[in-house]
């Protein structure tokens, strides 16, 4: 295979092979933009290297050829003593992983070529030595694994309180000596002077950084597959640290927070790459660059315009200015907040850049879910202690903690925490995931904290410069002498940037209010407008219907407001809780048919009243009512407690308690989930299902237009269903009500014999909670807490199969049941009502499997509508 591509050979669609950075560098090169020449080593080479633990055969020769070509083109050789070519070695995976992997700049410098570089720079010794010490520092840290603190401390000591701009050539030369000493100390070897060796070592290190712990954590969080590998970009160096006419910056073509068009970015004069993100000096805005270097600014604006038109989307870029000449170092379609995603999609439609289908494809259910989160009450009278930048929206309340470790620790105990630090690094990732929000005192909207938090949809306020954060003392001070120590509750508003002392009350989001308010839109709120337009298109596009899992009037009403087209699962056992439990007890304890009849007669009017309310709310839309499902013991007292009570009472124990204890003992099961529940219960307790069906029929008769469907749970054999169906049909006929009778498919045998079951069932609803439980043999109530984190870590699966439908296993059962069920009964109605009905990936699967509807909890309905629309594109 071909392992190396020149920038002129690739394009933006080759991300699998060249990574995002490499593919886009190639795209920009081919657009004629000023990109420093270079080449990309493919992610395939990385995969081979990680597998075989040695560079794949032929790779070194191929790299040498491309380097040769690059050298001829540039007219200088890598590290050439009198006139060196220097290169950067940068990682670049298919999916961006900000700051997760390694980059080494200035490869090619050594004790000789540093003089050549100074000569190139017109005798600028300071620049050359600064570049050299940066190489040793970055190389030492990322390639040789030396603690970066050692280098930082040496630099701080040298500076002695001075700004880094005040250091001169001699200072940096001294620093190079110190740094070389650190390297020799830490590795037992001298810093490698051979430029080709430097490049080879850096390339291997970038490959290996794919498996660095922080990268592994990030991929798991972002659901990025673990086996992609990273490409490596070797790029001829351009220098932003040449002098004040040079610099480096990052920019967005639109505001990634709001989506508004304009000029957004940061620029740092006389600095190199990582300095902007690391926040070593305060950056200036792009607007200020206009004043400093108008031609460069104008060219940058032109390029940004060109990129946005070419990619038809918000782009973010990294650039460097070398003595007044602009160079593009990176571009990509930029991350954005959920709100900006909706706004930008609709803005681009209005600008004629994309069509509405494309707009729909560019937003996700996960983003919509984010927008439905509550915000802080506007008029809340809380003390704002300072303001930072609104880096990632949302409202976070929690105890202040000052290290990632503490964040993880407290969150594991169920506490809400806000991670506070001067700035974050990729090592803080686990803490950021654990925290409700992140607050930093340094860095701008492009700092690590901001970029990562936005990517995760986590609330973040960054650059709150008035705060003095001391991680060592676990506290910060705010203006006015306010001291916040670990454990004190703070609230941060990622939409406004405000930081509050104490807990601020939160209110619903405008998007939530829009859904709650039955879809009325005023034209004042741009975000709500955008959501409305995209949702309308999703509704018009989707083939899947969306129903709700609801078992009371309130949830039914909400489901309708959110756009549900029916109820896909009404769990009747929820109607047996609370005060009614006693009635169920009576039923279970009944020893004669009279006692049983009496108990059932007491339950029936209550059931009927519940169904009536739901039919009224749903106003003619279909309501699928599932007959009672869970094991009976859930309705009975705890065995141990009751035994103790009876034993303590001795002879004085009440007759009723004795009987109850005997029943509880009789009904005790080792595996209740595999025991007497669902249809089994209906077949074992005479009259129970009949009472429920009669209650449904009579309620349906009483409500004009009511549309009931009767669903039998936990069926594994058509014979079970036939018994229940016969009785149910008789009752429906007696009352004079028509209703479909169907079954859940939630036992693997039901899926495997779906062809037979469809003889008796008029519809199937996939109960993928139980179907997953029984297909994997995972107790659904136990395993997630017990060992799923280990399984996720080991990569057994990338996401819990209870959350996202396991296509390879459970999915095959679903497909089989769909096919064989429809063969028996072509008009068989098919739906899903397990938790997966509200999960984006699973909804796409349901669309592909040809289901008629998905059913999910009321709050997930907008997400399901959106994803069903996207699935149909
Ligand atoms: C299911 O098993 O997927 C289902 C919807 O039923 P329940 O969750 O009530 O067992
Ligand atoms: Mg079930």
From TrEMBL:
Catalytic activity, EC: 2.7.9.1
The UniProt record lists the keyword Metal-binding: yes
Domain spans labelled Pyruvate phosphate dikinase AMP/ATP-binding: 54-282, 297-338
Reaction equations catalysed: pyruvate + phosphate + ATP = phosphoenolpyruvate + AMP + diphosphate + H(+)
A Pfam family per the record: PEP-utilizers
GO molecular function, one term: pyruvate, phosphate dikinase activity
Residue ranges constituting the PEP-utilising enzyme mobile domain according to the UniProt record: 415-497
PEP-utilising enzyme C-terminal domain residues: 530-869
Keywords from the named record: ATP-binding, Kinase, Magnesium, Metal-binding, Nucleotide-binding, Pyruvate, Transferase
Domain of life: Bacteria
Keyword field contains Nucleotide-binding: yes
Cofactor: Mg(2+)
PROSITE patterns: PEP_ENZYMES_PHOS_SITE
Enzyme class, first EC level, given as a word: transferase
Stretches of the chain forming a coiled coil according to its record: none
SUPFAM superfamilies per the UniProt record, alphabetical: Glutathione synthetase ATP-binding domain-like (SSF56059), Phosphoenolpyruvate/pyruvate domain (SSF51621), Phosphohistidine domain (SSF52009)
Family according to the record: Belongs to the PEP-utilizing enzyme family.
PANTHER family according to UniProt: PHOSPHOENOLPYRUVATE DIKINASE-RELATED, PYRUVATE, PHOSPHATE DIKINASE 1, CHLOROPLASTIC
NCBIfam families: PRK05878.1 (NF004531), pyru_phos_dikin (TIGR01828)
Protein name in UniProt: Pyruvate, phosphate dikinase
């Amino acid at each position: 295979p071909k392992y190396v591509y020149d920038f002129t050979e690739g394009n933006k669609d080759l991300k699998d092979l060249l990574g995002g950075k490499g593919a886009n560098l190639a795209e920009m090169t081919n657009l004629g933009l000023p990109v420093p020449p270079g080449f990309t080593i493919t992610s395939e080479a990385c995969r081979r290297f990680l597998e075989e633990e040695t560079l794949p055969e032929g790779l070194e020769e191929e790299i040498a050829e491309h380097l040769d070509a690059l050298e001829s083109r540039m007219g200088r050789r890598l590290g050439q003593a009198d006139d060196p070519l220097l290169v950067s070695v940068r990682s670049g995976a298919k999916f961006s992983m900000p700051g997760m992997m390694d980059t080494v700049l200035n490869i090619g410098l050594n004790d000789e070529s540093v003089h050549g570089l100074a000569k190139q720079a017109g005798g600028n010794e300071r620049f050359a030595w600064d570049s050299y010490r940066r190489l040793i520092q970055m190389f030492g840290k990322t390639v040789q694994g030396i603690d970066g603190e050692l280098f930082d401390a040496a630099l701080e000591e040298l500076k002695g309180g001075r700004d880094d701009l005040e250091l001169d050539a001699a200072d940096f030369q001294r620093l190079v000596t110190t740094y070389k000493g650190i390297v020799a100390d830490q590795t037992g070897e001298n810093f490698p002077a051979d430029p080709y060796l430097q490049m080879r070592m850096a390339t291997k290190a970038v490959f290996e950084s794919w498996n660095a712990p922080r990268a592994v954590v990030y991929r798991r969080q972002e659901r990025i597959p673990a086996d992609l590998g990273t490409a490596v970009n070797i790029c001829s160096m351009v220098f932003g640290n040449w002098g004040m006419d040079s610099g480096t910056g990052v920019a967005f073509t639109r505001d990634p927070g709001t989506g508004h068009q304009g000029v957004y970015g940061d620029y740092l004069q006389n600095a190199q790459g990582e300095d902007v993100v690391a926040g070593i000096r305060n950056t200036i805005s792009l607007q200020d660059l206009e004043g400093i270097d108008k031609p460069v600014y104008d060219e940058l604006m032109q390029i940004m315009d060109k990129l946005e038109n070419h990619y038809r989307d918000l782009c973010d870029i990294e650039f460097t200015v070398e003595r007044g000449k602009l160079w593009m170092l990176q571009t990509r379609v930029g991350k954005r907040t959920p709100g900006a995603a909706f706004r930008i999609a609709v803005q681009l439609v209005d600008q004629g850049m994309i069509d509405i289908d494309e707009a729909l494809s560019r937003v996700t259910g996960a983003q919509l879910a984010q927008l439905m989160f509550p915000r802080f009450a506007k008029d809340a009278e809380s003390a704002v202690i300072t303001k930072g930048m609104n880096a990632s929206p949302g409202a976070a309340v929690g105890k202040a903690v000052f290290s990632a470790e503490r964040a993880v620790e407290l969150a594991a105990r169920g506490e809400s925490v806000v991670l506070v630090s001067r700035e974050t690094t990729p090592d803080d990732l686990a803490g950021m995931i654990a925290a409700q929000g992140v607050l930093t005192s340094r860095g701008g909207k492009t700092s690590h904290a901001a970029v990562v938090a936005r990517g995760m949809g986590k609330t973040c306020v960054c650059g709150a410069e008035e705060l003095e954060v001391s991680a060592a003392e676990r506290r910060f001070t705010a203006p006015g002498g306010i001291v916040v120590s670990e454990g004190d509750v703070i609230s941060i508003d990622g939409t406004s940037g405000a930081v509050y002392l104490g807990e601020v009350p939160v209110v619903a989001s405008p998007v939530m209010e829009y859904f709650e308010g039955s879809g009325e839109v005023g034209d004042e709120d741009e975000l709500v407008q955008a959501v409305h337009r995209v949702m309308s298109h999703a509704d018009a596009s989707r083939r899947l219907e969306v129903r709700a899992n609801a078992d009371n009037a309130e949830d039914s009403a909400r489901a309708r407001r959110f756009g549900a087209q029916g109820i896909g699962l009404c769990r009747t056992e929820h109607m047996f809780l609370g005060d009614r439990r006693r009635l169920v007890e009576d039923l279970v304890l009944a020893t004669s048919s009279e006692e049983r009849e009496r108990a059932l007669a007491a339950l029936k009017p209550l059931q009927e009243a519940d169904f009536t309310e739901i039919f009224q709310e749903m106003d003619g839309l279909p309501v699928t009512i599932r007959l009672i499902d869970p094991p009976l013991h859930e309705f009975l007292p705890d065995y141990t407690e009751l035994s103790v009570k009876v034993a303590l009472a001795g002879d004085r124990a009440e007759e009723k308690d004795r009987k109850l204890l005997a029943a509880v003992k009789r009904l005790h099961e080792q595996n209740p989930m595999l025991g007497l529940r669902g249809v089994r219960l209906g077949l074992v307790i005479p009259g129970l299902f009949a009472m429920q069906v009669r209650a449904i029929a009579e309620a349906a008769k009483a409500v004009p237009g009511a549309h009931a469907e009767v669903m039998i749970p936990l069926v594994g054999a058509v014979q079970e269903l036939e018994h229940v169906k016969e009785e149910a049909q008789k009752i429906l006929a007696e009352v004079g009500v028509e209703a479909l009778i169907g079954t859940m498919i939630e036992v693997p045998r039901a899926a495997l014999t779906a062809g037979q079951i469809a003889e008796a069932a008029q519809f199937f609803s996939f109960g993928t909670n139980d179907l997953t439980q029984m297909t994997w043999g995972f107790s659904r109530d136990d395993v997630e807490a017990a060992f799923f984190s280990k399984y996720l870590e080991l990569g057994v699966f990338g996401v819990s199969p209870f959350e996202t439908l396991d296509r390879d296993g459970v999915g095959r059962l679903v497909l089989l049941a769909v096919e064989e069920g429809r063969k028996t009964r072509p008009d068989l109605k098919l739906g899903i009502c397990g938790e997966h009905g509200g999960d984006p990936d699973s909804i796409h699967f349901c669309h592909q499997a040809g289901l008629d509807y998905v059913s999910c909890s009321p709050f997930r309905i907008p997400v399901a509508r959106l994803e069903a629309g996207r699935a149909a594109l």
